[in-house]
Queue: 2 jobs
Job 1
Amino acid sequence: MNVLPFQVVQNEPLLKARGVTIDYQSDRGTVRATHDVSFEVWRGDRFVLLGPSGCGKSTLLKAVGGFIAPRAGSLQLDGKPILKPGPDRIVVFQEFDQLPPWKTVKQNVMFPLLAGGTPKKEAEARAMDWLAKVGLAPFADAYPHTLSGGMKARVAIARALAMQPEILLMDEPFAALDALTRRRMQEELHALWEENPFTMLFVTHSIEEALVVGNRILLLSPHPGRVRAEINSHQFGLHSAGGAEFQATASRIHKLLFGEGAAHVEETLPAGRVVQS
Amino acid sequence: MSVNANLKWEPPVRPEYEVPLEARPAAAHGAGMPAAGVVAPVSPLQRLAQAGWLRKSILLLVIAALWEAMARWTDNDLLLPGFVQTAKALVEGTVSGELPGYIGVSLAVLLQGYLAGVAGAFLLTTLAISTRVGRDLLETLTAMFNPLPAIALLPVALLWFGLGKGSLIFVLMHSVMWPLALNTYAGFRSVPDTLRMAGRNYGLGNVRMVTQILIPAALPAILSGLKIGWAFAWRTLIAAELVFGTTSGKGGLGWYIFQSRNELFTDKVFAGLAAVILIGLLFENIVFQQVERLTVRRWGMQR
């Protein structure tokens, strides 16, 4: 398997997106999801894609996952172009049905390992190790439908991290959770990263979540998704939420995304611009 | 404080308070389940009322009693033998080995036709999920043949395969294949996108995608298709046997019913019908329910 990030310190970005333009087909014609988006993710980054709905952040993440091919531009992981989905880029989805319901918690974590050809014994040991890290070892033999939303999210994260991917792709993983659980998951994710640093690309539409979870934030404006700014947030953690600097950055992001004093303009805009029909 | 003039009563500001959390009650601690919180267990009477088999058995007993009363009131063995008489004929037929022989013949043919139908359905759905032509083919063929009663094909089958097992298997296959293919295909199509993407994410190939993601995820639909197919096959078989009777000297249950009617043993006709129903119930309750309990219900995909 691949080595842990930081053991080999390369002075090179891990993920390079160059002028990525993504179109998708809808009933109304071809819709542009993102336009000429470039960014770089370095090893150990907690890189956040932040923007309102319609800014193409999830589409961008799926392109990095290899599920969607960009119309123009290039996506490179470790110098190699991204052409199709692969186990070096494991996605944690928002939906709870990402866990096959016919597999127990442990089998769920083992599943991608076994699919990748890891011997059963080793897969089991690794699965139990990661389940213990997310605090779910007592539920190893439970079926997903008996778990709460937060526990399902933990299983998905354990499953992804057990694969030790080059980069972890998280597509609004906590958006379907209640506010209290979401806060706790952000905390736990941060603790996991401190303990065992990994590279992460995290999609969210919550400014607060972006500041708390990420160390660098790419702001995207909607219809179509274009880069608005790139902001550092490594100085913030859960403890700093509510602090003066935190608030100042949050309102700066708000202004960048929505313009001065225009908080709800985006709702009046059409859902997507048709570029060809 | 008169910001809201419409407010008639101003709620008073009450003192705040905090309560120290005590240890949880003993009942919630047991069994290691978090937040079990069972305050009162289910009483035995409630449990009995919840048992489906008991309620259904009582219902069956009532129906049997009504039937028996009706038969005694009519008092005509030739038209309507009672429950007791039918039961007696059923037991006698079973003990003498006559009925099990017929059932054996029927089941053997049924199983062959059923398996052929299942194989056909899986072939068709595999084509349908892998190619566009296959999908069009499945949609067109099921739209054409699903409404066509299998028994209507029997004359053609007799022409092609002669008076024997071949034509029976042909109509059975027809009765199983279309509903099963339709259900399986619908099941495959309703597999969540997230699950498919997760499968692709782990680098599963086409075959493993089908066996490890699509089939388990579509299992509720596949099982219901298998159940419908089973019932359709049973009806088709009995009807077909009624129409052309024996196959190479050995008759099935349908033939038994037909023959008993010719000889005016109405109780035996009823015993034959009862046997058909009993076997149907047996398969539904033992085979299919067990499979469901071990799979889709355990996984929380079906209640």
Job 2
Amino acid sequence: MEIPQDLYIPPGALEVFLDTFQGPLDLLLYLIRKHNLEILDIPMAELTLQYMAYVAMMRVDQLELAAEYLLMTALLIEIKSRMLLPNPKTATEEEHDPRAELVRRLLEYEQMKKAALRLNELPQAERDFTTIQVWIEQTAAEQLPNINLDDLRQAWMSILTRAKVNRQHQVKREILSVRAYMSQILRDLRGQEQVQFYDLFSPTAPVAEVVVTFLAILELAKELLVEISQSQAFGMIYVRPINAT
Amino acid sequence: MSDLLTPLNQPPLDSLTPEKIKQILEAALLTTQEPLPVSELRKLFNHQLSAALLSNLLEEIREKWSDSGVELVTVASGWRFQTKADMQPYLDRLTPQKAPRYSRAVLETLAIIAYRQPVTRGDIEEIRGVSVSSSLLKTLTARGWIDAVGHRNVPGKPALFATTPHFLDDLNLRSLEELPPLEEMKSLIESNDKNQDLPFAEPETSDH
């Protein structure tokens, strides 16, 4: 078959060209639109001729691609042959156009093809806009357990309790040093009516000293040498010397 | 020390002014990447504020941000802050790799699923006239835009595909009704002489 002159495509462009079609229906649609053929009354002979010209080109170097298109060629020729046959007036009252099904498929495909383009024109996340996220401490969202001051205090108390237990088995000098602090505290309290609990701690003291001071106060209370009082929950704590006299 | 009796995560509600509520809503929406529906936002206030009230305040927040580079929008899954479209070309300069553009095959498949859902792979192939590769459906599934919602009761039990709420979110839509309307068949038939409708770079053919 002779390839129509106006369908000549430079060989290098062929590959690119064929890639632009989505398949046999797409190519068919292209031919119909390009050549202004009436879609409801497709001139089958002309269309089939055009179509086969493309398929012939494909077969030159893209045989595997041609397979899908050959099927359509067969369909086109079948439709044409059915149109050529005399129509036996027996079966249906209305004459059935063998092209009808092809036209339906073409129109449906074209409808979706256009819908696809419209979809693509819609703003698209990441491509046309970005969702906002202000930085937030993500670990906070990780459902870490909540703690409050009370938990902390209890933890501290249990550490102190344990430390106290251990203390008896460990270093004797610790006991002595608690004793030393007990003395120091008593000295500080001498002549005073009462002293604020916090004032007994030196703000610059290292942790060990704070612990020992605390233990010393507890020890003094246990030995009934001082009295620790708090008038209301979470209020000020006062330490008062108990005078034996 | 004095706060021990009032747990920190239970702020009192009655002291909230509308201004404060808006700040809370704003903070929640700004720190969440996924859209938040009003029902979810009500949790911020222990469900004690009405959806209508929150919606009104959200509108006010939207108004407040209208003059900036970001905007508050509603999509299928709820409210979300996002950049305005005209910011994107500039933002793209910060990230060298371009957001991928989908091929025609992907877009056509997506369109068929969006407009004809739920559909099987066979339905898609029937309309497009070519076979639909698995990788193509995988692309759309991986993006979270489509998923299998069931199986058609025919031999082989093919999966039925539908679009997801995430698809609507990503296209700034609240519902499928907001998809661009399909072109009427009639107008397709009449568009015979409008070759410029063919939106794809036409191959260089030496006409005449």
